[in-house]
Amino acid sequence: MSNTSFFDEQKEQSLIKARIVEKYFWAWAQVMIGTIKRLESKGREVDPRIAYIDLFAGPGRYKDGSKSTPIKVLETGISNPEMQNRLVTVFNDVDAENVSSLHEAINLIPRIDDFKYKPQVINHEVGENIVKTFNERKLVPTLFFVDPWGYKGLSLKLINSVVKNWGCDCIFFFNYNRINMGLSNVAVEEHMNALFGKIRANEVRQQLITLNPKERELTVVEALCEALKEMGGDYVLPFRFKHENGNRTSHHLIFVSKHVRGYEIMKEIMAKESSEQNQGVPSFEYNPATSKQPLLFEFYRPLDDLEEMLLDTFAGRTITMQDIYNQHHVGRRYISKNYKDALKNLEAKSKIVAEPPANKRRKNKGELTFADSVKVTFPPKQ
C-alpha cells in the first residue's frame, strides 16, 4: 500500500487519533513516574526511566505543516521536568525518507536537548527480529504505539512482547477494510494468522462467510479483542473511526493494558473524543458525518439499559457507588458519570435506597451529587 499521499494533509481522523495517544501518554506517564518515585522514596532499587516506542513513526510532520504523533509526544515530554529526565523515546520507520524527515522535525523542537536521553530514530522493517529483541529484554514501563499502513508487522507476538512487562501498555491503529479483505485472501494468510492466531483466524474465516457487513465488523473486532485478552492483555478497549461520508468504518484504534487503572483512564479519554453521546453514554466512535436523528436516536436509550442491568446484577445487595463501578464497567462503554446518573435516576424513582439520601447530599452547580462513597441498597429480585 502506497503512503505517498498519506502525509500530504492531516485529516480530522488523524488529528483525533493523535489527540487520544497524546492525552493517554501524558496521563500514563504521570501515573508511572508517581509510582517509580514512591518506590524510590522507600529505598527500593528501581529503574528511573519510562519509554515511548513508535514502530511506524512516519516523517514527523504532514506536508501542510501539521505535527504528527511523534512530535506531539516529544513536545508533551519536554514540557515536564520529570519527563525530561526519565523519558526514553524510540521512533522507527522502514522508509529512509521518513526517517530523515523525522530527524529534522525532532531537531526543530524547541529545547529538544533538554531531554536526558536523546530521542532515537531508527530504520528497520518490523518483523520477527524486533519481537525477539523485545522478548529477550525486561522493558521499563513503556507506552507502545503501533500504526502500520496495513497489517504487515502487526501481530499478537509483537504486542505481547511489550505488554508482558509491568507498566507497559499498547495502542494500535488498524485499517479495518484491509483486514476484513485479508481474512479471505490466501496471499496474506500468514499475516492474518499472526494477527489473530492461526486457530482463531480459521474460525473467523468460517464465521464471515454468511455474515452481513455490520456483523462481519463486530465479529472481526471481537475476535481480535478476545485474542489480545487470551495472551494476557486483560483490559482491551476499541474505538472506531468512520469514513468522512460516515457510511463505513475506516479504522479502529485498540488499547491494550494489563491494569484496570490504564483502562479507566483511556475510557475517559475515548469518551470525550466520541462524536456522539446518547443519554450521556459515549459511542466510542468518531464519525465526521454525524447527523443528529433524535427520533431514531431515542429508540436506543443506553442509560435506561444500565439502570435495568444494575437492578438485576446487584439485587439484594448494599454496596458503594465506587464498588458498583469497579465490579461492572469493564467490557462496557459506560463511564463513572453514567453510573452516577443511572443511580440518581433509580433513587428518584424510589427503586433503590441511597445513604446518605438525596436531601442530605450536596449540590454542585445546582445538580445533585452522588459521591463514590454513597452506599446503595438494591431491592431483592422479584
From TrEMBL:
Domain GMT-like wHTH: 285-358
Domain of life: Bacteria
NCBIfam families in the record: tcm_partner
Protein's UniProt name: GMT-like wHTH domain-containing protein
Organism: Nostoc sphaeroides CCNUC1
